[in-house]
Amino acid sequence: MMRGLVFSGTGRPLGIERLELDEPGQREVSVRMVASGVCRSDLHVVDGDWERPANVVLGHEGAAIVEAIGPNVTGLSAGDLVVLAWTAPCGACRACQRAEPWLCTRPRGGGHRLHEADVRLHRPDGTPVGVYSGIGTFGERQVLAQEAAIPIDPTTPPELAALIGCAVTTGIGAVLNTAGARAGESVVVIGAGGVGLAAVMGAALVAAAPVIVVDTNPDKLELARRAGATHAVHASDAAGVVDLTDGGADHVIEAIGLTETVEQAVDLARPGGTITLVGMTAQGRRATFDVYRFVEDGKQLRGSNYGSATPAVDFPRIATWYAEGRLPLDLLVTERIGLEGVEDAFAAMRRGDGARRVVVY
């Protein structure tokens, strides 16, 4: 038996339930969760911004210890510390063949493990329970595809390893992989939550200059400075960013997910500059901008899913950068909580309070 935080549908309270977990099958591993970040993507599900099936264990940002391996598993052993990837690329679809695993159309364990062949979790009465994004990190244990379990430096603190599974990789990857920012280029990050702070760290890592963060929360702006920002600007003064960057930034990273900040990001980029959208809005939202001006200025608009990352490559190298002292990831952990504290963590997120709460098992 294990405990898991189950989403039963929009408007219904989350509940911690005792669940039964099957043994791992072909190319699957059984893991014991050690930490899970509380991410806004989970909140979007709880608040009904995104349509997702009910009766699933939430959570998609985690680290775990491998307990058992199923048949035909390679590259993993019991006892490994692994970061969990919320997409387990199939390796065969067109996206995977293009070396874009973050866009895999047939991830293993996809559909939140609700397909009959993928179900590994049950209530005591036998009712199947799904697993959000195939990993369900708000559960004490899980069975998942081997492609979703990426081994990293075992000395990595578990709560930071968990954040590498989503926020850190998404933010750093948006700067390094999607935008392709380079030394000496100006980077503006809109939003200083977990993903935005990671983007600031990524910009500082490649020696971008200046690195400017925009937010409404003074505490988060101070945190961004500690993360590597050269300038911290209150959102009410965002128009001044154009002057700070001598006509607009080379790269603008939108890390909030609001239509108004998406539109603002377009305005803050220089002619020929790149706007990278990382933040996720509620489904169906549309932003607008002056198309004539956008084309005349030759700007570029990009979407960044999972930081355009290849987890098997990016997770270990981020852990290595942390070990080398090049990424101050400890700044991201606002509070360590138990599974019972997730609801309060969601409430804090709605208030814009702090960077990341992390469940430590």
Structural write-up:
The chain has 361 residues and is an alpha/beta fold. The protein has two domains: 2-166 and 308-360, Quinone Oxidoreductase, Chain A, domain 1 (Alpha-Beta Complex), CATH 3.90.180.10; 171-305, NAD(P)-binding Rossmann-like Domain (Rossmann fold). Helices cover 27% and strands 26% of the residues. The chain contains eleven helices and 18 strands. Strands 3, 5, 6, 9, 10, 17 and 18 form a seven-stranded mixed beta sheet that branches. Strand 11 (187-190), helix 5 (194-205) and strand 12 (211-215) form a beta-alpha-beta unit. Helix 4 (167-179) crosses helix 5. The chain is globular, with a radius of gyration of 20 Å.
Looking at the chains present, what oligomeric state does this protein adopt? single chain
CATH superfamily of the largest domain: Medium-chain alcohol dehydrogenases, catalytic domain
Order of helices and strands: EEEHEEEHEEEEHHEHEHEHEHEHEHEHE
What is the fold named in CATH at topology level of the largest domain?
Answer: Quinone Oxidoreductase, Chain A, domain 1
Could you say which overall geometry the principal axes of the C-alpha atoms support? Answer: globular
What's the tally of helices?
A: 11
